[in-house]
Amino acid sequence: MRARASLDQYDALADLLSRLRRYFPHMGLNLWTMPLWLSPLVALLLLGYSSTAMSVTLIIEHNGRELIYYTHQTSVRAVLREIGLVLQPEDDVFPHIDATLHNNGVVRISLARPVIIEVDGRIIQTFTRRQRVDEILKGAGVECKAQDAVHWNEMDPEMSSGATQAQHSSSPTAASPLQQSIVRPPSFHIVVRRAVPITLHDDTTTVTFYAAGPSVGEALRAAGVVIRPGDLVVPALDTPVSSGLHVFIRRSLPVTIRVDGHLLAMHTRSRSVRDLLAEQKIVLMGSDYTLPPLDTPLHPGAVVQVVRREERIRFEQEIIPYETEWIADSAMLLDTQQVVQPGTEGVTMRRYRSIYEDGVEVATVLEREWVASTPATRIIAYGTRIVVQQLSTPDGPIEYWRRIRVLATSYSPASSGKPKDHPRYGVTRTGLKAGFGVIAVDPKVIPLGSYVYIPGYGRAIAGDTGASILGRHIDLGFDDDKPLPHWYRWVDVYLLTPVPPHRDIRYVLPSWPQER
Q1: Tell me: the pLDDT tens digits for 66-115?
Q2: How far, rounded to the nearest angstrom, does the alpha carbon of residue 248 sit from its chain's CA centroid?
Q3: Are the C-beta atoms of residues 190 and 212 closer than 8 Å to each other?
Q4: Same domain, residue pair 491 and 399
Q5: Which residue of 39, 175, 259, 396 sits 20 to 30 Å from the alpha carbon of 449, by its own alpha carbon?
Q6: CB contact at 8 A, 294 and 271
Q7: Containing domain of residue 20, as a range?
């Protein structure tokens, strides 16, 4: 990065006034009051002063900045003194500090880094251009052993102000922009902790090692000694380290606890299952138990399972459907019904006792079963009184004894699903020839052989059946020599007299399909 630090008119004027005040202190020269009485003279002085300054390029090596500075000084030492830079013995300047400067000359400045070293209870402050920590310590005369611990970091500006204030000469006024640009690298803080011998008694093993940590815990950690939860360390982990210290570790047992759906791996100094649960504050309630039992001694790698056991009571109910009883009523007309008694459902109750272990059902016992409420039979009366009636039709009056609402469709021998060369082609269930005037019925609704009348179709005989003809559904027969009409409608079917015998009449007909 390149920055230009040339003095503008204001800076040049301020510099000139500073010099004049040194030689004429009684004049009271001031930058703000000067234009009232001295502007022409100062302008001439400024013009002459600026025209005689030469240009010097200052290159700061550690940050790569290039600063152009205008000066009347003729040596490197004078220029550095003029900008207020105080050199340390470790700094490097090229050309030599006593070299003569020329216009457009170049001065390379390599500033040393301030270093603070804490070692052996003392603090060393120095400057260095070395980069490696071991070389910095060696240059400061600090010898380190392999076991010693060395920590370092760059210091905050506030912490390093005491070490860096020597880079500029003190002045009651604020630093100029040029001085603010020429600053040293951040201070470096190095702490050396000397290692001391420690004797470790780890159960039956004894070993001596060197530790540089400030406490027993950090010394053990640095030595690779793992302290697990439950291990007993004497003295405590936060005890300061001293030379010749003896540390004792009583190791805990590695065990695993299975409880409440969790797998807990831990180390413990407990020696029985009971003591382990007490240590971990695991409480057995009710009929809970452990595997192995509570008085079992622990060993390394032991697995203790806590079984949560509970009993639950549950109730189930089963609906008892009611039955329907049909009662013939000769006073009621055929195809009429009346609910004499509504039916109600009953309920059977069962009580179960279930045993759960860790949320899983392991046993179930039926403790009791009883009828909480008994069903009541629904009683429906249906009419059996038949009244023969007459109906005027386009084909003349008819006499019928029953009228049934049905869904009517149409078929012909060709649509019945048999090929024409089939021996039963065009032959109905009753042996009649299929065609116009023969209809297919459900015999449970309309007995085969019954004569009927269908409005829009005419007289017919119930002479055929079909796999899809069920309930209140009839299929009207048509001949093959004419296009098959498409029937799909609800119509009234009139069953013609004579009235069949009582035993052949189905008084309660199916209710399906239903007309929408």
Answers
A1: 888 889 888 889 888 888 888 888 888 989 888 898 888 899 998 988 99
A2: 45
A3: no
A4: yes
A5: 396
A6: no
A7: 2-110
| 163 contacts 186 by C-beta, under 8 angstroms | no
3-state secondary structure of 342: coil
Per-residue pLDDT, averaged over 482-510, amounts to: 95
Q: Are 106 and 191 in contact (CB under 8 A)?
A: no
Q: Running DSSP on this structure, what letter comes out for residue 414?
A: G
pTM: 0.45
Q: Sort strands 360-373 and 196-202 into parallel, antiparallel or unpaired.
A: unpaired
Please give the structure tokens belonging to residue 116: 């603070």
CATH number of the domain within which 42 lies:
3.10.20
* Number of residues in the chain: 516
Residue 484 zone, left/alpha/beta (φ > 0; ψ -120 to 50; rest): beta
In the chain, the amino acid numbered 344 is: T
Q: How far is CA 249 from the centre of its chain?
A: 42
Please name which of 87, 84, 93, 89 lies closest in space to residue 58, comparing C-alpha atoms.
93
- Binned at pLDDT 50, 70 and 90, residue 166 comes out as very low
Q: Which amino acid is at 156?
A: D
If one counts the domains in the chain, the total is 5
Q: Report yes or no: 339 and 318 within 8 Å, Cβ to Cβ.
A: no
3-state SS, one letter per residue, for 140-169: CCCCCCCCCEEEEEECCCCCCHHHHHHHEC
